[in-house]
């Protein structure tokens, strides 16, 4: 088997076999195939695409390039979720403790943020002392003991995907659905969960801008997971405005704490409960979807979900005393952004809000950038809300970096007019 033959086969639009894809990934990972030849293959794939079977073979080959986490020592069905990335998306911080409080085993490896999308691990690191790295045996023991662990992705999980993604990033071959799907699913399949819900974001602040694109990606990821023996569900959720009100690492922990105490914004609660209900059914904990949603809502209101969050933070070394006053996690420097006119908010461009938070230091332009955990944006209004001229529509939490630029981006992101509308948040479910 020769790499040039595989490149030319894909260039000509032909379907690759499992053996050819396995050869490609194995030899690229171990250094036998150089970047220039893999770049040629990626560009050929970009123009000729892959079918579902090829994408599945690619996901499995990347999964098998490194460690596969064995969770068999955790009794019962282990669940996980993945978001394709959005602005203000702190669902994992709420969903994990919420499910664990109802007896579901939540064993999650999460990533860091890059670009305008935040990472769960960065958010958890804004809690003083929280350890994001655990040996696998300690990870498993913690899930057995308290029902939940959330850690950073191991450097040995799907190393082929890390290497391939870095190359895609510099060869303009990131945004093709089979490569996105196989990249995401290689890590999910290696992480060991039995049931997975995918939250596929669609809109201004998402990688998938249209519902058609998001549906194709969701269907392919569900198909890959099913062929690998996983229980799979995908939901399409809107990202034409940020999820919740707070954007930035410590700010999102703050809003997660509010939500776990029954005081969360409706859109954030709705998405979390929708995902949670599917996982309650897949875990065998509940058999009726509406009953599952009611139980999740009750756990948010009665304090059991918040207590499980405290258990998680304490188990991983975090200072739970700081969580009783989460505002202490935030920067003390604030700037108020005032409305320039009166009317209804007709648009909040999530991408521009994410960029504004990045300018303040809350996100990374490159993987090596150092972020500031205590800065970000608190949006006081949602689409459909009425505002008066001169009223505060957002508060910037700053460290004297990028303030003017962030303020300008926020004002440009928020459109005010006469139309009173609300967005559809949960657009589609794919099983």
Automatic annotation (TrEMBL):
Annotated keywords: Glycosyltransferase, Transferase
Catalytic activity, EC: 2.4.2.2
InterPro entries xrefs: Glycosyl_Trfase_fam3 (IPR000312), Glycosyl_Trfase_fam3_N_dom (IPR017459), Glycosyl_Trfase_fam3_N_dom_sf (IPR036320), Nuc_phospho_transferase (IPR035902), PYNP-like_C_sf (IPR036566), PYNP_C (IPR013102), Pyrmidine_PPas_bac/euk (IPR018090), Pyrmidine_PPase_CS (IPR017872)
Superkingdom of origin organism: Bacteria
Coiled coil stretches, renumbered: none
Pfam families reported in the protein's UniProt record: Glycos_trans_3N, Glycos_transf_3, PYNP_C
Gene Ontology CC terms: cytosol
Enzyme class, spelled out: transferase
GO molecular function: 1,4-alpha-oligoglucan phosphorylase activity; thymidine phosphorylase activity
Gene Ontology biological process: pyrimidine nucleobase metabolic process; pyrimidine nucleoside metabolic process
Function field: The enzymes which catalyze the reversible phosphorolysis of pyrimidine nucleosides are involved in the degradation of these compounds and in their utilization as carbon and energy sources, or in the rescue of pyrimidine bases for nucleotide synthesis.
Quaternary structure, from the entry: Homodimer.
Record family assignment: Belongs to the thymidine/pyrimidine-nucleoside phosphorylase family.
Protein name: Pyrimidine-nucleoside phosphorylase
């Amino acid at each position: 088997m020769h790499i040039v033959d595989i490149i030319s086969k894909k260039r000509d639009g032909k379907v690759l076999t499992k053996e050819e894809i396995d050869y490609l990934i194995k030899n690229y990972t171990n250094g036998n195939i150089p970047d220039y030849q893999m770049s040629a293959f990626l560009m050929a794939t970009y123009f000729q695409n892959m079918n579902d079977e090829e994408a599945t073979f690619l996901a499995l080959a990347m999964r098998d390039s490194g460690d596969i986490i064995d969770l068999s020592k955790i009794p019962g069905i282990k669940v996980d979720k993945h978001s394709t990335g959005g602005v203000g998306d702190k669902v994992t911080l709420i969903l994990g403790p919420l499910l664990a409080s109802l007896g579901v085993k939540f064993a999650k490896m999460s990533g860091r943020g890059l670009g305008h999308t935040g990472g769960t691990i960065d958010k958890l690191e804004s809690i003083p002392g929280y350890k994001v790295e655990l040996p696998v045996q300690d990870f498993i023991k913690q899930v057995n003991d308290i029902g939940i662990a959330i850690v950073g992705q191991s450097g040995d999980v799907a190393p082929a995907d890390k290497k391939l993604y870095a190359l895609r990033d510099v060869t303009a071959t990131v945004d093709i659905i089979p490569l996105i799907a196989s990249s995401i699913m290689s890590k999910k399949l290696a992480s060991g969960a039995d049931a997975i819900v995918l939250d596929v974001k669609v809109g201004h602040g998402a990688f998938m801008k249209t519902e058609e694109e998001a549906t194709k990606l969701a269907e392919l990821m569900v198909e890959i997971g099913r062929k690998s023996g996983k229980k799979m569900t995908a939901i399409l959720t809107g990202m034409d405005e940020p999820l919740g009100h707070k954007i930035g690492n410590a700010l999102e922990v703050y809003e997660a704490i509010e939500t776990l105490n029954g005081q969360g914004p409706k859109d954030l609660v709705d998405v979390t409960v929708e995902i949670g209900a599917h996982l309650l059914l897949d875990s065998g904990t509940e058999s009726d979807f509406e009953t599952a949603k009611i139980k999740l809502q009750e756990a948010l209101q009665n304090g059991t979900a918040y207590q499980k969050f405290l258990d998680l933070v304490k188990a991983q070394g975090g200072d739970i005393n700081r969580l009783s006053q989460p505002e202490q996690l935030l920067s003390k420097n604030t700037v108020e952004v005032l409305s320039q006119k009166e009317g209804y908010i007709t648009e909040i461009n999530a991408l521009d809000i994410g960029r504004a938070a990045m300018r303040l230091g809350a996100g990374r332009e490159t993987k090596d950038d150092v972020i500031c955990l205590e800065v970000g944006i608190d949006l006081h209004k949602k689409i459909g809300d009425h505002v008066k001229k001169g009223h505060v529509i957002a508060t910037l939490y700053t460290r004297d970096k990028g303030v003017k630029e962030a303020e300008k981006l926020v004002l440009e992101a928020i459109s005010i007019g006469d139309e009173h509308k609300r967005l559809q948040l949960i657009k589609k479910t794919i099983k």
